[in-house]
Structure formats: structure tokens, C-alpha cells
């Protein structure tokens, strides 16, 4: 026993000597913070032990609580508490130990002041030590729910377009009177609309007014949030908010009007749905000739595509690579649970599909006919010419009778109608007459 106490004494002396020597082992930065967790949320605190001289190696850090009678309790991992250790080697062989305490669900029992177990300390031990070498305190101040103000934005029913509405932000609970209100604001879909700094709920001039929307349109639909920024216990910035969604009932401005769309085979065609509303859903249906209505067609096949630029914009239904089988009636309808009803709340598009060469066929026909006629006449002409070659040879400029009439037309008309001797026309006149004649006969054929 005496040996034991002697060893203990010796050990103690060594410890003291080392302390006197000025070992720099201790709890170092970042120091454990005083935290202000909200009741029923999680919280964490980290302590770091290190010896900058590298003389002592940290072995463990314990989290302790000390009550008003200076009675210490060591915190152990359990359902509500856990620890995480991290060691880091600095400059080759100098160890830094960080231990984090996690409180899973903070209650008033965890408060330094109001919890039975009292205030918090981290105790850091070095390798070979029995007693801790350094300690550092921190506080846990639990903010109860009662201290937090509450704002309420009443729910709105679904509006019709052109309705008026007034949104109010009601501070239903002030929370702790010592909690400063820093700012209260209206937001629409995350974008600020108006705000009041340091509002005074007692003074209607000095608080956030109601939001008045007159004759609402689709673009007024959306998420309206009232946000109150407070400073709990004068240290912890905290936001409380409530929101309401403005819905504008969908409607079809001109449901009875049919729209005819013409498309060429192989091309694309788009229908713009006239339905409006917020949020807007539509159903697309198709009725092909002699077939049943196909409801709720969607973009999954790739042949059809349903698009819109934004939640406020109209829907477009696009058919790519249009085929003759796509002919029929397409309907954009207000939601009907995919029923096959196309008579109510639907807008109709009629799709006609044409051959892209369709417009060219008459022209091509005329051209082919003209060429064939030309060839027939040309060949007939050539044969006649060959027969008459003997006769023609007899004639020369001196024996040829004078031309009757003047100009191509005159000579031509006579040649055609009166079968005047060919010698009356020069070769040039004849060929231009021939093409004129041909065109006039082709035109007659139509
Ligand atoms: C935290 O504890 C409270 C009361 O003990 C309980 O009502 C709440 O559900 C708990 N929350 C979580 C996240 O466990
Ligand atoms: C952290 O270290 C302590 C001793 O310092 C040990 O009891 C505990 O199990 C360790 N925890 C983890 C998660 O490693
Ligand atoms: C964990 O906290 C709950 C209250 O939130 C308490 O009833 C329970 O006893 C605690 N568990 C332990 C192991 O401390
Ligand atoms: C750390 O390493 C240095 C040289 O790299 C050595 O001088 C020193 O003694 C070592 N310290 C410890 C505690 O091992
Ligand atoms: C605000 O809330 C209080 C309490 O719920 C209620 O009496 C009051 O009528 C509300 N004020 C407005 C403008 O909605
Ligand atoms: C509306 O906005 C609030 C906060 O800005 C958000 O919490 C909420 O989820 C939003 N609601 C919808 C339906 O987008
Ligand atoms: C509170 O809301 C304001 C405005 O959106 C934002 O700038 C701030 O970071 C929020 N504060 C907290 C603690 O969430
Ligand atoms: C699209 O329609 C097909 C059949 O009409 C259906 O099987 C599929 O689930 C639909 N896809 C979506 C995303 O609605
Ligand atoms: C669609 O069906 C749901 C549930 O089956 C119903 O609540 C809703 O009113 C229906 N909508 C329409 C437009 O028929």
C-alpha cells in the first residue's frame, strides 16, 4: 500500500513538474460554443484537445455536467446522446483529438441552468494521465417553443379569374416579449414583395399590411409566404413563416371553336391549347376516323410531345413526322380523369395531312404532257419534211410566193389553220409557231 501511494505521489510530482514546465496541452480553438438549440431539435458541441509542443498526446475527452452542489456526472452515449471522435496528425506526429457531443432531441433537461444535471464541461486527458489535464466550460440554453412567435396566413379557396382577394398575415402568438421582431415580409414564390423592418404589432401603421390582389389573372397564382424574422434570446436569428397557395380555377376561353391545322406528311404540327388556370393541367385526346376516342395521350411515345414554357404559359401538343394515320381530331380538355368525353370543356383541332409533292403534281403533269406532245409533233413534222424534201428542193428564194400577213402569229395561224404551203414560213417562224401551237392545245386539254 505504501508503495502504491509512493508511486502515486511520484506520478503526481511528475505531473506537476510537467505543468510547471509549461506543457501547452489543453482544450484549444475552436473552443466549445455556448449554444441556443430549439426545443425538440438536435444540437452538437465539439471540444478539441492538442499540445502544440507535441510533448503530450491527447487520449480522450469527456463531457461532464456539474450541478449546483458541484457534483459531476460523466455523459455517456445513450438513446439521446452520442459522441464522435476524430484524430488528426499535425506536423508528422503531433496528435489533435476532436470529440463532438450530439444531443438528438433537445429538451429543457439539457439546459445548463434548468436541467437537473447542471452546466457542461469538456475534460481533456493525455496518454498516461489519470486525471484530466484541461477543462473548458460551455452552456446549453434551450429555447422553448413558447418563446417563438407564430404567424398565420389563412388558407384561400380556389379563385375564379378576375376575382379579388386580400391576404393577411396574422401574428397569432407574440412569443417571448423580449424576442425582438426584426422584419416581416411578403414573398411570392420566393421573391420579396414588401417588407417592414422592426414591426410593431400594436401599431397597424408599423406592421405588414394585407396583400390586396384585384381581378386576379393566371400570373397571380402561386405560393404567398409571410415571413417573420426574429432574434431569439437576442442572439439566435430565426424565421417563422406561413404560406398559402393561390389557385386560379382552370377555364377554356373559347371552347366551341374548332381549329383546322394542315400539315405535310413527314412534317411537324403543333396545337396551342387555349386553357388557362393555375396550376393548370390539361388532358389531350385524339379521335381518328372510325376509331374510339383515345384519352390522356402523353409524350411517352416520342411521336407526341407536350410542352409549355413556364407554369403560366399555355400547353403545346406537337406531333413530329406526321403520317396519314395521324389524320383526325385532337382535343385539349380540362381535367376529366381521362374520360373519353370530348364534348365538354374541350377545344378541338382538326388535322389534315397532305402529300408534300401534292402542290407540284399538276405542274409536273403539264410539263410531261407538253414534252410528249412536242415529241409527237416534232417526229410527225420530221417525217412530213422528209416526204416533201423533193418538192422543197424545187423552191428557192426566187420562186417562193410572198408571205401573207406579218409577224409570227399571222404566219403561224395560217400554217395551222389553213395548211398554207410551208414555204411561206421561215424555219425560225415555224419552230416558234410550233411551240405556241403546242401550248395552246395543251391549255385546251385542261
Ligand atoms: C422529441 O421529444 C419530444 C418530447 O419528448 C417528442 O414529442 C418529439 O417527437 C421528439 N422529436 C424527435 C425528432 O424525436
Ligand atoms: C471515442 O473515444 C472514447 C474514449 O475517449 C471512446 O470511449 C469512444 O468509444 C470513442 N467513440 C467513438 C465513436 O469512436
Ligand atoms: C431520452 O430522453 C427522453 C425524453 O426526451 C427520456 O424519457 C429518456 O429517459 C431519455 N433516455 C435516456 C437514456 O436518457
Ligand atoms: C516527433 O517527431 C520528431 C521528429 O520528427 C521527434 O523529434 C519528436 O521526439 C517526436 N515526438 C514524439 C512525441 O514522438
Ligand atoms: C388573427 O388571429 C386572431 C386569433 O386567431 C383572430 O382573432 C383574428 O381575427 C385574426 N385576424 C385576422 C385579420 O385574420
Ligand atoms: C411555399 O413556400 C414555402 C416557403 O417559402 C414552402 O415551405 C412551401 O413548401 C411552398 N409550398 C408549395 C406548395 O410550393
Ligand atoms: C430568414 O429569411 C431571410 C430572408 O429570406 C434570409 O435572408 C435569412 O437567411 C433567413 N434566416 C434564417 C435563420 O433562416
Ligand atoms: C402515357 O400513356 C401510356 C399509355 O397511354 C401509359 O402507359 C403511360 O403510363 C403514360 N405515361 C405517363 C407518364 O403518364
Ligand atoms: C377525378 O377523380 C377523383 C377521385 O377519383 C375525384 O375526386 C375528382 O373529382 C375527379 N375529377 C374529375 C374532374 O372528375
Automatic annotation (TrEMBL):
The keyword Membrane applies. InterPro entries: Cell_Adh-Cytoskel_Orgn, Ig-like_dom, Ig-like_dom_sf, Ig-like_fold, Ig_I-set, Ig_sub, Ig_sub2. One of its GO terms (cellular component) is plasma membrane. The keyword Transmembrane applies. It comes from the Eukaryota. SMART domains: IG (SM00409), IGc2 (SM00408). The chain crosses the membrane at residues 359-380. PROSITE patterns: IG_LIKE (PS50835). Keywords: Disulfide bond, Membrane, Signal, Transmembrane, Transmembrane helix. Residues 149-236, 253-332 form the Ig-like domain. GO terms for biological process: homophilic cell adhesion via plasma membrane adhesion molecules. Residues 1-22 form the signal peptide. This is Ig-like domain-containing protein. It comes from Desmophyllum pertusum.
Amino acid at each position: 500500500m505504501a508503495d502504491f501511494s509512493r508511486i502515486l505521489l511520484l506520478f503526481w510530482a511528475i505531473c506537476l513538474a510537467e505543468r510547471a514546465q509549461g506543457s501547452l496541452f489543453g482544450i484549444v480553438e475552436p473552443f466549445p460554443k455556448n449554444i441556443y438549440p430549439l426545443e425538440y431539435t438536435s444540437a452538437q458541441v465539439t471540444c478539441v484537445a492538442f499540445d502544440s509542443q507535441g510533448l503530450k498526446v491527447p487520449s480522450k475527452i469527456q463531457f461532464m455536467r456539474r450541478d449546483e452542489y458541484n457534483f459531476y456526472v460523466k455523459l455517456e452515449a445513450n438513446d439521446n446522446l452520442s459522441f464522435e471522435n476524430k484524430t488528426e496528425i499535425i506536423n508528422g506526429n503531433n496528435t489533435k483529438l476532436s470529440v463532438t457531443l450530439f444531443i438528438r432531441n433537445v429538451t429543457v433537461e439539457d439546459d445548463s441552468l434548468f436541467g437537473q444535471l447542471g452546466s457542461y464541461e469538456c475534460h481533456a486527458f493525455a496518454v498516461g494521465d489519470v486525471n484530466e489535464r484541461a477543462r473548458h466550460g460551455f452552456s446549453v440554453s434551450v429555447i422553448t417553443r413558447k418563446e417563438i412567435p407564430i404567424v398565420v396566413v389563412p388558407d384561400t379557396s380556389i379563385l375564379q379569374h378576375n376575382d379579388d382577394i386580400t391576404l393577411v398575415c396574422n401574428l397569432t402568438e407574440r412569443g417571448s416579449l423580449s424576442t425582438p421582431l426584426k422584419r416581416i415580409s411578403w414573398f411570392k414564390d420566393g421573391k420579396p414583395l414588401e417588407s417592414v423592418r422592426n414591426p410593431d404589432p400594436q401599431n397597424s401603421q408599423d406592421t405588414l399590411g394585407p396583400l390586396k390582389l384585384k381581378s386576379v389573372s393566371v400570373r397571380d397564382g402561386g405560393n404567398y409566404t409571410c415571413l417573420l424574422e426574429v432574434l431569439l434570446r437576442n442572439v439566435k436569428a430565426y424565421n417563422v413563416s406561413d404560406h398559402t397557395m393561390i389557385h386560379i380555377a382552370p377555364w377554356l376561353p373559347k371552347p366551341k371553336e374548332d381549329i383546322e391545322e394542315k400539315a405535310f406528311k413527314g412534317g411537324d404540327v403543333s396545337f396551342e391549347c387555349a386553357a388557362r388556370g393555375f396550376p393548370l393541367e390539361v388532358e389531350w385526346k385524339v379521335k381518328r376516323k372510325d376509331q374510339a376516342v383515345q384519352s390522356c395521350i402523353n409524350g411517352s411515345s416520342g411521336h407526341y410531345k407536350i410542352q409549355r414554357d413556364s407554369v403560366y404559359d399555355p400547353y403545346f401538343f406537337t406531333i413530329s413526322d406526321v403520317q396519314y394515320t395521324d389524320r383526325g381530331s385532337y382535343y385539349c380538355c380540362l381535367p376529366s380523369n381521362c374520360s373519353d368525353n370530348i364534348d365538354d370543356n374541350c377545344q378541338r383541332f382538326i388535322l389534315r395531312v397532305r402529300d408534300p409533292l401534292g402542290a407540284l403534281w399538276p405542274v409536273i403533269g403539264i410539263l410531261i404532257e407538253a414534252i410528249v406532245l412536242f415529241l409527237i409533233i416534232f417526229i410527225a413534222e420530221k417525217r412530213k419534211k422528209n416526204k416533201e424534201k423533193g418538192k422543197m428542193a424545187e423552191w428557192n428564194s426566187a420562186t417562193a410566193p410572198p408571205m401573207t400577213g406579218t409577224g409570227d402569229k399571222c404566219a403561224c395561224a395560217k400554217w395551222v389553220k389553213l395548211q398554207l404551203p410551208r414555204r411561206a414560213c421561215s424555219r425560225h417562224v415555224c419552230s416558234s409557231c410550233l411551240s405556241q401551237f403546242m401550248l395552246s392545245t395543251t391549255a385546251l386539254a385542261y
